[in-house]
Amino acid sequence: MTSNASKPIRTRFAPSPTGFLHLGGARTALFSWAFARHHQGTFVLRIEDTDVERSTPEAVQAILDSMDWLGMQPDEGPFYQMQRMDRYREVVAQMLAAGTAYHCYSSPEEVEAMREAARARGDKPRYDGTWRPEPGKTLPAIPEGRKPVVRFKNPQDGATSWNDMVKGTISFDNTELDDLIIARPDGTPTYNFCVVVDDWDMGITHVLRGDDHVNNTPRQINILRALGADLPEYGHVPMILGPDGEKLSKRHGAVNVMEYDNEGYLPEAMINYLARLGWSHGDDELFTREQLVSWFDTKHLSKSASQWDPKKLNWVNAHYIKQMDNAELAERVATRVATRGGHPEKIDLPGVMGLLKDRAETLEQLADGAMLFCAEFKAAPAELAEQHLTAPAREALADFAQRAQDADWTRESLSALIKAVLADRGLKMPQLAIPLRVAVTGQTQTPAVDAVLALLGKDTVLKRLAAI
Ligand code: GLU
Question: Quick one: a GO biological-process term for this protein (predicted)?
């Protein structure tokens, strides 16, 4: 057996398409992706669709869409296990021929009885090896008409250990491991066996996956050894907990990755946040995809479970929104504005983004804010008008409107104009700014009034002022 140390790195993400891609899966994928990228290796995507009852094409598509959205395109694949059945059968036949696997004719009821007997003796429930061939052992007569399963001949002594990239040394006594069924009576291969053949055939050097798979690893290692395959390195990452310390679930909010797209999170922010959830680079909280790739290592994967923190995700998202180019932001927000019935093409959407982005946590909030500039105008409700559009306020507004006819329509000159009207009329800022907002936007709360006027444009502003 050769070592993997000198081989080019090959990692894989191997989701079961039984539902959307959830946050935990996305994070595992990200670690495998970043590890491959860091080492200029290959990132393989493998769809583990052998559970035909629960796998759906929609789930496959949802996984592909999520990977695409997050920018984690595989270098190879997607490979589909259902398309590799002949290969699994071939390896089963090889193992039978080599004597590393054997036919077992015990019925499910008999196996259950063996387990029961072991339990009664105070042992671990297990298959008792009735059909396991040993030198000098006579096997029972084959029951008529019964189709056998194929079992792996697991070593019966010693231990199976590996140096886990995340958890350190993990060891299982081989006596704890049953002779695993690798093919069912109808010949279909079982889960652990397909994983083994795939990892072997795909030349996977490093397996990073959730720690719910720790118990599968010694079984997989033993089968790989029986096949004479090189062993990958394994790293098992702890799960993600909700803010209350319970396993992260729907109760804590969205767990479907694409839901975060809907809610207006940027993939850049999701990548940064997910990477930081269970991995660290000193005290760095904010880093780009490129930095992640150049810094990523398995040494700094956390041994303990990490906690989902929606506030922190919002903070990270706000950071990426703030530092994004206005035109780029506008592009990402335009459809959201259109969905709200706004006409993004009719306004200076990049300008609007520039005004709003410092205070927005999501693209949805930006789209809401942009509607001020492109929703159909509704004049202020009567009571608001009554309260703010008083006689002196109307006089100040008329003065402003008159002087605005010749104004250079920029935020700076509008600001200067507002100040000039205030000074000439002996008013304080709110005495003009609030009536202006009410008259021009129909509401009292808006971003800075000079900026709002500048972005609404001269015609609109003068028309609305004239209509009060
Ligand atoms: N298909 C498995 C899952 O979705 C992952 C198997 C593996 O990574 O080895 O949990």
Answer: glutamyl-tRNA aminoacylation
Confidence of residue 75 (pLDDT cuts 50, 70, 90): very high
Non-local CB neighbours of 299 within 8 Å, separated by 6+ positions: none
Annotated binding-site members for ATP: 250
- Average pLDDT rounded to a whole number, residues 49-76: 97
pLDDT of residue 6: 74
CATH class entry, domain 1-80+191-323: alpha beta
382-466 belongs to CATH 1.10.10.350: yes
Torsion angle (degrees, nearest 10) of CA 454, 456, 460, 465: -70
Report the pLDDT value the prediction gives residue 1, as an integer from 0 to 100. 44
Alpha helices in 263-325 (DSSP H): 267-276, 289-295, 310-322
Q: 14 in ligand 1 pocket by Cβ < 6 Å?
A: yes
| Average predicted confidence (pLDDT) for the chain | 96
Residue 436 near ligand 1, beta carbon < 6 Å: no
Active site residues: 250
- Superfamily for the 87-183 domain: Glutamyl-tRNA Synthetase; Domain 3 (3.90.800.10)
Mean pLDDT on 159-170: 98
Q: Tell if the pTM clears 0.85, that is, is over it.
A: yes
Rg (CA), the chain: 32
Average pLDDT over residues 459-464: 97
Instruction: Tell me the mean pLDDT in the region 314-326.
Output: 98
Extents of the domains making up the chain? 1-80+191-323, 87-183, 326-376, 382-466
Are the beta carbons of 221 and 8 closer than 8 angstroms? no
User: Which of 10, 11, 16, when mutated, tests ligand 1's pocket best, judged by the most ligand atoms within 8 Å of its CB?
Assistant: 16
Please give the number of the atom of ligand 1 that sits closest to the Cα of 209: 8
How far does residue 46's CA lie from ligand 1's centre (Å)?
A: 9
Q: What is the DSSP letter of 397?
A: H
Whether the CB of 195 sits within 6 Å of ligand 1: yes
